[in-house]
């Protein structure tokens, strides 16, 4: 039996409303953000990986970032038992990182320098200046354990069609508009849990 587009849309709407999901408006963006994001493919329309306010499933303190790599979801914990849930792409099983750390640095449209281990695997990769062709996308949050850079990031992407997959070299990728939203919410030294 075929449900069709209208039936699927209705089913998703009922699912979302029944689970206490609430849409989260897009953040304001600069003219540069809008121009550069327009040059990146839109990606897939998948309600599972859209940005939603949900009941907090983590039990962590407000301001904490929790990445559930199996679900391909990132939660930013809000006060009052709520969280904002974002769809993400995570590390391929061979390259994933897990642990508890902190956000030590934030950057807008950052330059990207591939780590030596990545260059060894893929000699064709080269450093890239910030912009729409950069793999780090619109924003990057740098994950540190103590004072040591883990070399893992939570960042935007120039491949939004891969959200929901395990495809990166360990970093957590988000749609650029979601990376901007999270960037605007995250405070200094925010706790990050990747599991």
TrEMBL record:
Its EC number is 2.3.2.-. Pathway: Cell wall biogenesis; peptidoglycan biosynthesis. Pfam families: YkuD. GO terms for molecular function: acyltransferase activity. It comes from the Bacteria. Gene3D superfamilies: L,D-transpeptidase catalytic domain-like (2.40.440.10). Belongs to the YkuD family. This is L,D-transpeptidase.
């Amino acid at each position: 039996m075929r449900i069709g587009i209208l039936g699927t849309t209705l089913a998703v709407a009922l699912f979302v409303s029944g689970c206490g999901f609430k849409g989260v408006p897009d953040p304001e963006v600069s003219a540069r953000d809008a121009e550069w994001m327009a040059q990146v493919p839109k990606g897939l329309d998948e309600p599972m990986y859209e940005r939603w306010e949900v009941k907090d499933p983590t039990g962590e303190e407000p301001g904490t970032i929790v990445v559930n790599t199996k679900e391909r979801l990132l939660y930013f914990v809000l006060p009052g038992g709520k969280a904002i849930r974002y769809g993400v792409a995570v590390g391929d099983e061979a390259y994933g990182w897990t642990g508890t750390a902190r956000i030590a640095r934030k950057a807008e449209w950052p330059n990207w320098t591939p780590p030596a281990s990545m260059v060894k695997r893929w000699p064709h990769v080269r450093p890239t200046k910030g912009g729409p062709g950069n793999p780090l996308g619109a924003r990057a949050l740098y994950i540190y354990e103590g004072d040591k850079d883990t070399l893992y990031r939570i960042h935007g992407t120039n491949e939004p069609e891969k959200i929901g997959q395990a495809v990166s070299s360990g970093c957590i990728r988000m749609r650029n508009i979601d990376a901007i939203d999270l960037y605007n919410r995250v405070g200094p030294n925010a706790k990050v849990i990747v599991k």
